[in-house]
């Protein structure tokens, strides 16, 4: 279950210290910490002495001690959902729940009353794979596995309601196991009600304005399909959201703009066309437009695609290109490029120490205004990936004239939608009073070629 970060619900609980290896939890012995979420900590564990013949497992420990009654109720409710789903909807693409219990007298007083779920132990998560660099040949297979799991859940009358790479686990054989059913919701008719929790980056547009009733927030299977669209984009872009913004709230604002028809969907062009189209269908802006794209129908399309000629290969050179684009475009709307491209004929260049910003997206060039979706980022360090955490607060737009004092020829490569690529960057001055006082413009974001010295 995710931490509460729906609108109007930002309570945080104090974390307890993690259990050290060797701690006894029920009939299990902790061997190491795997990770922590908003409300739970997951440990690797093996059968305790005297309980042989059982597999190694993962223990999800959800403390309830010291929580406000409302929070404790949420934990209990979350555990109930996990147990209920595990009991009724088992499937090879879902992590299996072996047992659950409440810790009565743990050696750790802070864990008195904690709820423990004993689960099949996964070898890792899709998030870890994305972070480590997901081999191109595995991408289609993993997305198909997620669809299989979702198709089963939806057929069984459940919505996952918290699909994200952290909750896509991988069995020892590398196959997908969906996990974390703390928000999973059983459908009554066309929809169910989930607690007002979840992960902002995976909320569809309609969720941002969904009223919170007594039963919770209304969710439908199309919410999972939207989240799947975001996950597909992440799989092909080293974890980038299709929506621009440096924070989940900013990306959420971009989702709402898109949902209201005020901004287009801007997907990374490094994504092979089949997957881009599939993700775009998942990311249809309304529930109604998304509804025809069920997990089942998406799975059928993927299966046909993977059986077809060239299955699994993407397009030529796609792997390297995707990696470069991912670093180039992550979190940045409308990245533009320098390549070693000549300046357009007949265009008088600016003064030697200035560069005019060029946005590769035509709509942004024609816009003429300062639409946030058309702003471009300047890097803090050209040697680091060109991602949201490596850009300064100052944004620039097509046509802005910047003062440049030197160039770096061997920075991170940046590639744009028009396939221009360059490792060149220009150091540009920021407005007076800015900290830092300079930042870096990828040379692909201007068509100007000033003669500048190499930066020291
Ligand atoms: N059965 C399992 N086997 C192996 N790793 C697991 C298992 N279940 C969860 N994990 C990993 O443990 C970590 C913590 O999981 P947890 O469900 O507590 O939080 P989360 O999903 O990261 O965040 P949140 O639930 O707050 O959204 C995650 O990295 C997850 O991938």
From TrEMBL:
Keywords: ATP-binding, Kinase, Nucleotide-binding, Transferase
Pfam families: Pkinase
Skewed-composition ranges (Basic and acidic residues): 445-456
One function term, GO molecular function aspect: ATP binding
E.C. designation(s): 2.7.11.1
Kinase in keyword set: yes
Residues that hold ATP according to the record: 60
Residue ranges occupied by any Protein kinase domain in the UniProt entry: 28-302
First-tier enzyme category under EC: transferase
Spans annotated as Disordered: 1-27, 436-456
Family: Belongs to the protein kinase superfamily. NEK Ser/Thr protein kinase family. NIMA subfamily.
Name this polypeptide is given: non-specific serine/threonine protein kinase
Lineage: Bacteria, Bacillati, Actinomycetota, Actinomycetes, Kitasatosporales
